[in-house]
Amino acid sequence: MLEHDVLVVGAGLAGLRVAIEAQKQGVDVAVITKVHPVRSHSNAAQGGINAALEQEGSPDSWEAHAFDTVKGSDYLGDQDAIEIICREAGPEIIELEHMGVVFNRDETGHLGVRAFGGATYSRTFFVGDITGQALLHVMYEQVLKANTRIYEEWFVTSLIVEDGVCRGVVAMDLATRRLHTIKAKAVVLATGGAGRVFEPSTNALIVTGDGISQAYRAGAPLMDMEMVQFHPTTLKQNGALLTEGARGEGAYLLNAEGERFLGNERNQFYAPSKMELAARDVISRAEQIEIDAGRGVDGCVLLDCRHLGEDLIRERLWQIWELAMDFANVDIMKDPVPIRPGVHYIMGGIKTDVDGRAWDVNGGGWGGVKGLFAVGECACINAHGANRLGANSLLETVVYGRRAGLTAGFYVKEAPTALLSEAKMADDESRIKEIISRPDNGDRWAALRLEMGEMMNSQVGIFRTKENLEGALEKIQEMKLRYRHVPIQNKGNIFNTDLQFHLELGLMLDCAEVIALSALSREESRGAHYRLDFPARDDEKWLKHTMAYYTPEGPEMDTLPVTITQWEPTERKY
Ligand SMILES: Cc1cc2nc3c(=O)[nH]c(=O)nc-3n(C[C@H](O)[C@H](O)[C@H](O)COP(=O)(O)OP(=O)(O)OC[C@H]3O[C@@H](n4cnc5c(N)ncnc54)[C@H](O)[C@@H]3O)c2cc1C
Fold first, then answer.
1. How far is the CA of 353 from the centre of ligand 1 (A)?
2. Would you say 328 and 298 are in contact if contact means Cβ atoms under 8 Å apart?
3. What domains appear along the chain, each with residue ranges and CATH number?
4. How far apart are CA 460 and CA 449, in angstroms?
5. Does the model's pTM come out above 0.90?
């Protein structure tokens, strides 16, 4: 049996940051990842990473960043978590710089910033429009330097929980299809989001919510799963993202009449002062209203970068120039490009405390699983509440990655060694064998996945109603039944991606169910969650987190209070 002190599942920015920090504690750390580390979705992050860095002459402060984040979250973010992420942001940027990230600089040679949505001051540090790639490669070098063991192209199939404590995982070596039990005193999930539960999505095909569903099945509660972010600027053709950095640099959003519609009062979601730099939920709704009212262009509105000039686009927005050229055949230097809102990020996830622990150390009454940690997009430390501000997510991966790595490092020094059975591995082996043995007829997983994604997009989308959500839940139940009979065509053992994608779909269906039920339970509109039948924010009843617990019959819903430290909820306008 393989064995480590700390096992990190995921090699995106969150997982690698955890590994670097845990390793510094002198414990045995390993990372397991279903793709090569630099193919993790973090690699696709474009626009940047936020921090109120105390630079000479800057009016910015971590408190201003924290207030913007609280307001951005529509007051659902836990303010203790928000204070930490904003306070620790500055030192973390400097540390990244010292590790070797070549951030853009301004004319004076200082680290340069660009504007981003929902922010009072420009505080987004960036590397052109390939910030995630720059960060991930540097972080990967650090992990290589530390000689951390990486199980590359290994797929975690289940968590092993015995006596209420997480003691390891079952994982499949994709090259051979062989299952292994990996024992660990602490398991840190850093498996990323669940964007592909919706179709289309800006997320990579691998972003399938694996860790979220596995933690849920293992007994860890999921928080605020209804909070799914639609990004305002995604390409019509394939849902690819065009960074908010474009608007940060000054790009406009136009309707078919060439009007910057965010300034027009006629639109109930207009944002007269912030315009294109309002929060994402507000802009996405405004766009959808324009499109639905027939003021769009072919189901889209337009992103206009022409006035930014060739030099700026070449230097700072080159990747999106290429994306628009390749997929939409539009040269953004010469023409506006059609875009529409698309699923991008999940604010909800595995409930943790501010050190990444997915169990309730402080007697808050929410349970969880001891020995299990979560960080990055799969986690809900709750720094984003009902709507994440752009460029706060990369920040979360590093700030909370460091904290979780440190805490896990300490935790395993005290944790007793336990004997571990291989029963879970035997269960998974027979589950997989049964899938392989299914007769090759009926539904295909690819078709079912697309059906689920498109249904989620239309029924659990930007505008939601009780009727739509109940319909979605019914369809998910029906899809879960069908899933039980879906076969795979590849019966072989070597890189059986047919099998991997099949297992992923099973996990995605659980995520879909929790998202839809959480959305049905929240009878108000807040941040990304907009209910046409409950169009107002209702602080009296719903200044609360939704919590979903696994039961064999389906999710059981509960709530938890929101932590308020210094910012009382007020009206949110941009
Ligand atoms: C196109 C795009 C652009 C973005 N731009 C920005 C930006 O500019 N600024 C910003 O702040 N945020 C941005 N975001 C959001 C941000 O990039 C992500 O939230 C963040 O990078 C997630 O990091 P992570 O480490 O949590 O997960 P990921 O980077 O998604 O990594 C997940 C890891 O888990 C592993 N894994 C998953 N399941 C399994 C399994 N079953 N077994 C083994 N391994 C598994 C994967 O192999 C992978 O290594 C963007 C997101 C997208 C999609």
1. 20
2. no
3. 234-340 (3.90.700.10), 423-560 (1.20.58.100)
4. 15
5. yes
Q: State the Cα–Cα distance between residues 403 and 536, nearest whole angstrom.
A: 36
Cβ burial, residue 311 (10 Å; 0-12/13-18/19+): exposed
Q: Has residue 416 got a pLDDT over 90?
A: no
What is the structure's pLDDT at 54?
Answer: 80
pLDDT band with cut points at 50, 70 and 90 for residue 445: very high
Q: How far is CA 13 from CA 176, 190, 559, in A?
A: 27, 9, 30
Contact between 427 and 320 under an 8 Å Cβ cutoff? The reply is no
Radius of gyration of the chain (CA): 23
Give the mean model confidence (pLDDT) for residues 183-192.
98
pLDDT digits (tens, 9 = 90+) for 542-566: 999 999 999 999 999 999 999 999 9
CA 499 – CA 365 distance, rounded (Å): 38
CB distance 129 to ligand 1 below 6 Å: no
CB–CB of 340/300 below 8 Å? yes
**φ, ψ for residue 559, nearest 5 deg:** -135, 160
Cα distances from 43 to residues 124, 138, 306, 468, in angstroms, run 17, 11, 27, 34
The pLDDT, as a whole number, for residue 414 is: 94
Is 126 close to ligand 1, i.e. is its CB under 6 Å away?
Answer: no
Separation between Cα atoms, residue 419 and residue 3, nearest integer Å: 11
- Asked if 93 and 53 count as a contact pair (C-beta separation under 8 A), the reply is yes
Q: Whose CA is nearest to atom 13 of ligand 1?
A: 45
| Structure confidence at residue 58 (pLDDT) | 83
Residue 500 CB less than 6 A away from ligand 1: no
Q: Which residues of 252-262 are buried (b: 16+ CB within 10 A; e: fewer)?
A: bbbbbeeeebb
User: 268 C-alpha to center of ligand 1: Å?
Assistant: 33
| Nearest Cα residue to 76 out of 522, 433, 496, 450 | 522
User: 124 CB under 6 A from ligand 1?
Assistant: no
